[in-house]
Design a protein that fits this description.
Elements (H helix, E strand, L loop, with lengths): L1 H20 L1 H10 L5 H23 L3
Length: 63
C-alpha cells in the first residue's frame, strides 16, 4: 500500500509539472482530445498501461 501511495504522489508531481511548465499547451491539448476517436484514445490508454506495468515489473524484478 505504501508503494501505491508513493506512485500516486509521483504521478501528481509529474501532472503538476506539466500544468506549471506548459499551461497553454495543456489547454491546447484539452481542446484537441474530444476530436480524437474513442478507439484511438482507448488504444493509447491500453498501451500506456502496458508500458507502466512493464516498467513496474522491470523495477520490481531487478534485485
Amino acid at each position: 500500500m505504501n508503494e501505491l501511495l508513493i506512485g500516486f504522489g509521483v504521478f501528481l508531481v509529474l501532472e503538476g509539472l506539466l500544468y506549471a511548465a506548459f499551461p497553454a499547451g495543456v489547454k491546447r491539448i484539452a481542446l484537441e482530445v474530444p476530436k480524437i476517436p474513442d478507439a484511438t484514445l482507448r488504444n493509447f490508454g491500453i498501451i500506456a498501461m502496458m508500458i507502466g506495468v512493464g516498467i513496474v515489473w522491470l523495477v520490481r524484478n531487478q534485485g
